[in-house]
Amino acid sequence: MDFSLRSIVRRQFHKVILPLIPVFAIATAISCTSNNVKEMSVAKVRPAEKRSYYTSPSSLLFGINADSFNVIHGRIRANSFLSDLLSGYGVTPGETDLIIRNSKNIFNVREIRSGNNFTVLTNKDSEAKLRYFIYENDPTLYYIFSFNDSIHITPFRVTPRTEIKNSSLTIETSLWDALIGKGLNPELAVDLSDIYAWTVDFFGLQKGDRFKFIYEENFIGEKSIGTGRIIAAKFFSAGKEICAIPIIQQGKESYYDCHGNSLRKEFLKAPLHFSRIASGFSSARMHP
Questions:
Q1: Residue 237 CA to its chain's centroid (Å)
Q2: Where are the alpha helices (DSSP H) in the chain?
Q3: Sign of dihedral through CA atoms 264, 267, 269, 275?
Q4: Are residues 199 and 263 in contact, defined by beta-carbon separation less than 8 angstroms?
Q5: 228 three-class SS
Q6: Torsion sign across C-alpha atoms 198, 200, 202, 204
Q7: How far apart are CA 279 and CA 272, in angstroms?
Q8: Residue 7 gets which letter from DSSP?
Q9: Which of 90, 77, 76 is nearest to 143 (CA)?
Q10: What is the rounded distance in angstroms from the CA atom of residue 51 to the CA atom of residue 121?
Q11: Which of 25, 153, 205, 258 is the least crowded, having the fewest Cβ atoms under 10 Å away?
Q12: What digits encode the pLDDT tens for the residues 163-217?
């Protein structure tokens, strides 16, 4: 490692990371971006299907003024077809076929999955005509089926809000169990194992080993949708400490210890990524 890079790592550790890791003095999470969908109070439920009706003053729902509509939330049932679902709101087979043909290059309706959420917006009059059917493809991507003057599908993306969080863990049985025991996302076990794969044998963790780490967690509204980068970490075992500091070089991020040495070595400590191992573990060889 050249001297200049070593200096960068040391400066970043002493000025930025060192004060954070021992004390974890981030008391509140920092919101980076926000694009929330407002919750609305329950008004009534149609007995034929498990749905919730919502109204909210001056609210935008997927960019649509929800004040003008009845808003219905539901879940795609197993073995159901889009035509069957839409026909329950007065959409004809011809209209369903038209929206599929008009939008085949945007979204393949055959990819609609059972268990995913949907939202329906209907007129507030006695006819309750369907105006929008909104399908949740994943927490950040929705498809809006519009049944207005033009019949088409439009993608709608939601930008997650990122919070900076910190935590510390003491190993009793495994890293996985320690994360679950503290109510943390088990994805962090994968992230930590990737960072320390060349320096820590995750199948040889001992009771009393500890991790401290600062990380990103992504939210849509108040719902966590997963973790992001690990900003800094420190591993304690048998009186030894191994810190992990991310440094970007030539557009690629790698982790270095407190002395500016890369954590990436020639050989892995554990020969296989633990997420690919399905066999059981003995007490001498704990699941990470």
A1: 30
A2: 3-12, 20-23, 82-87, 93-102, 175-181, 187-195
A3: positive
A4: yes
A5: strand
A6: positive
A7: 12
A8: H
A9: 76
A10: 12
A11: 25
A12: 999 999 999 998 999 999 999 999 999 999 999 999 998 888 999 999 999 999 9
Write out the DSSP string of 99-167: HHHHTTTT--GGG--TT-EEEEEEESSTT--EEEEEEEEETTEEEEEEESSSEEEEEEE-PPEEEEEEE
Q: Are strands 117-123 and 41-42 parallel, antiparallel or unpaired?
A: unpaired
Distance CA(220)–CA(103), nearest Å, equals 27
Whether the CB-CB separation of 213 and 232 falls below 8 Å is answered with yes
Report d(CA 192, CA 213) in Å as an integer: 9
Task: Collect all residues with Cβ–Cβ distance below 8 Å to 283 and sequence separation of at least 6.
Answer: none
Could you give the C-alpha distances from 74 to 30, 49, 120, 134, 253, in angstroms and in order? Answer: 32, 8, 8, 10, 41
Pair 169, 209: CB distance under 8 Å: no
CA distance 114 to 96: 19
Contact 71, 128 (CB under 8 A): no
Which residues have C-beta within 8 Å of that of residue 221, sequence separation ≥ 6?
36, 37, 39
Structure token digits, residue 59: 């609210």
Checking if the pLDDT of 272 tops 80, the result is: no
pLDDT at 21 over 80: no
Quote the CA–CA distance of 153 and 258 in Å, as a whole number.
Answer: 52
For β-strands 64-65 and 41-42, DSSP reports them as unpaired
Residue 215 near residue 229 (C-beta atoms within 8 A): yes
User: How far is residue 51's CA from residue 44's CA, in Å, rounded to a whole number?
Assistant: 9
**Is the pTM of the predicted complex or chain greater than 0.70?**
no
Cβ atoms of 157 and 200 closer than 8 Å? no
Whether the Cβ atoms of residue 82 and residue 108 lie closer than 8 Å to each other = no
